[in-house]
Amino acid sequence: MVRRPGDAASGRFTCSTWVTSLDTVPFNRALDKPKPGNPRSDLHIAIARRLVERLPDRDIVAVLLAGSSTWGDADESSDVDLQILLDRPAPYREVTCIRIAEFLGEAPPDGPHYVDLDRLSAAAYQEVATRHSGLDYRLVHGLIPRDTRGFLADLQRDAIARFALPASYQARFETHRTLVETERTGAREADAQSDATLARLRSRRMVEHAAASILDFADDRVSNHLVDAVVKGLAHLRRADLGAAFLRAMAVDDGARGVDRALEAWRRFGEVSLEWFEDPAIGGQLNGEDRAWVLLNWNDAVVEEMEVRREALTRIGKLPALQYYADNKLTVPVRISFGKYLSLIETGQVARQTVAQFHQSLRRLHPDLFGEWVAGLRLDAPSPALAECEALAGELLAIGAAALARMGE
Quick one: DSSP state of residue 116? Predict the structure, then answer.
């Protein structure tokens, strides 16, 4: 039976009031195997519906709920993730992180505490969704609490049909395999040049891409939940023996100390980013969206949310997942936003850098922050040798290839 989000009961927020009437309004997602929910996911879905009712925007075309609640794996650290498609010209986009208590006046006592509101042009979203499959995971597994004229339902229906094709499974697997080979080549080049930190970084990303290749065949996700999903996926595919090697290769087995190092580096990048933001020669050259992302990455609500997530994941014993999330603070928002600063300084052009480009550019232009980056990602710590990472990546790809072959039988 397909799960359905429900209306929250009026009055104060409690788990019981929020999850009542879960069958009142269907969502339009027609997967053959919809994700089973857990109680917290159902709670988040109900809260999301209440949030959507309170949105102030007058030109909403549709709203997509994505993230852990729609995958059925929300936990105490999870937030609510809403994409709000608006009748505005491209390339409009505005992303904010807001405390749910402020948005609704009060919040459930046990969370969630924050909502990410991603407002963007519906026209731009449609163009991206129809031109390539970059949004497919989010569309396929998302729920639609509002859709004024079937706009998002049509996109979702097309995405689901496209996603389920055998050729699409093959293409996604080949994408991961290509990324593995790119990182393998880069790691070997860095190793030959005695660049130990870059070799470790690229070895880790090689394993990450190889591990992501199996998730399609274990009905799981490529996201901030990758660590948990891979360990679970390996067990599902009867290779649980590789779980420990994967955690070691990803350097997410260092406990609270590793998390501290990553978050300290993230905070330090935030300090410099906000200083440069005020410099007309640097921050003043960014466009409106890039400037908005800089402010979002280190605003008070995001910093608070990280502390809430840290406390929750530590309490429930998910330190490897917390470490991966903290690492992503460096490899995604820091690398993208701060990397544009570096690109501007070095080339005069604002451009997004790959992780390897960022690593090398940061070393040239800001040695102090390069030290923070290396320490934060634990690239100065003992780690598996390149050959060991290559062997593990090969095994993971072989598992994915075998699962892909079974699908065609």
Answer: E
Which residues lie across from 91 on neighbouring strands? none
**Among the listed residues 228, 213, 209, the one whose alpha carbon sits nearest the alpha carbon of residue 72:** 228
For 290-311, what is the mean pLDDT? 91
Mean pLDDT of 150-164: 91
Contacts of 263 by beta carbon, 8 Å cutoff, 6+ apart: 306, 310, 326, 329, 376
What is residue 140's DSSP assignment? H
Dist CA 156 CA 152 (whole Å): 6
The reported pLDDT for the residue numbered 91 is 85
pLDDT of residue 224: 60
Q: In this structure, which amino acid lies at residue 203? A: S
Q: Both ends of the chain: CA-CA distance in Å?
A: 27
pTM for this one? 0.87
Task: Confirm if 250 and 360 have CB atoms less than 8 A apart.
Answer: no
Q: Residue 121: is its pLDDT beyond 70?
A: yes
What is the average pLDDT value for the chain, to the nearest integer? 87
Burial class (CB in 10 A: 0-12, 13-18, 19+), 41: buried
Chain position carrying tokens 């497919």: 136
Amino acid at 317: G
Model confidence at 37: pLDDT above 90 = no
Percent of the chain with pLDDT over 70: 89
CA dist 141 and 64 (Å) reads: 10
Q: In this predicted structure, what is the pLDDT of residue 15?
A: 30
DSSP state of 55: -
The DSSP secondary-structure symbol of 218 reads G
Distance CA 361, CA 233 (A): 36
CATH tag, 15-163: 3.30.460.10
CB 256 within 8 A of CB 319: yes
DSSP H helical ranges for 25-145: 39-54, 68-71, 100-104, 122-131, 136-141
CATH 3.30.460.10 domain position(s) in the chain? 15-163
Strands 80-86, 60-66: pairing kind: antiparallel
DSSP 216: G
